[in-house]
Amino acid sequence: MKDSITLTRIQLLHPVIREEVMDIYVNEIVPALSSSTYCRFAYTLRTFQEQDELYAMGRTKMYDQNGKRQGVVTQAKGGQSLHCYGLALDIVLIDGRSAYWDIYRDFDDASIPDWVEIARIFESHDWEWGNSWGDSPHFQRTFGLSWEELLERYNQKLFLPGTTYVNI
Fold first, then answer.
1. Does residue 69 lie in a domain region?
2. Which ranges constitute the DSSP H helices of 57-95?
């Protein structure tokens, strides 16, 4: 099942990857999952400020609005994540009732966890899966560029014409 929220969030990604990601999502990820489960892109583009706010969680922002203690969410400050350049996305699986970040869950009984199915799809298109550094929901397309190189281009305002997306 296609998720309208995900379709909207794909439009926030870097223009160079939007069409590719839409194709991967519609033609590969959606058909790979059972009819009762779908993949949502929980995050795509984040501003530097949004990234800094996530970085503060569990560090300088210790409690949420309900007084619940927060844990560390990310190791990346604003500009240090590929989300800040529209080159990363985080996923979550939804079974119609609840969201799951369990990478071992096999909703469609295909003998392969659904997260692994999705990871294999992205990896077949030269995307990196964050599972290798402990960030299972995260996928990114670097084009061989580090966050430092992307930040340098951002600071130099080396953008695609008429946008604030760095030229890659």
1. no
2. none
Phi, psi dihedrals of residue 26, rounded to the nearest 5°: -70, -45
């033609």: which residue's tokens?
27
Mean of the pLDDT values across residues 41-68?
Answer: 80
Cα separation, 21 vs 30, whole angstroms: 12
Quick check: 74 and 51 in contact, CB under 8 A?
Answer: yes
Model pTM? 0.89
Domains in the chain, number: 1
CB 150 within 8 A of CB 81: no
Q: Which residues pair with 41 in a beta bridge?
A: 91
pLDDT digits (tens, 9 = 90+) for 75-127: 788 999 999 999 999 999 998 789 998 899 998 888 999 999 999 999 999 99
Q: Is 51 within 8 Å of 79 (Cβ atoms)?
A: yes
Q: Which of 7-11, 30-34, 93-97, 160-164 has the lowest mean pLDDT?
A: 93-97
Q: Which 3 state secondary structure label does DSSP give 79?
A: coil
Query: Are the C-beta atoms of 150 and 82 separated by less than 8 Å?
Result: yes
What tokens were used for 124? 């077949």
Q: Is residue 168 part of a domain?
A: no
Burial label for 140, CB within 10 Å (0-12, 13-18, 19+), is: buried
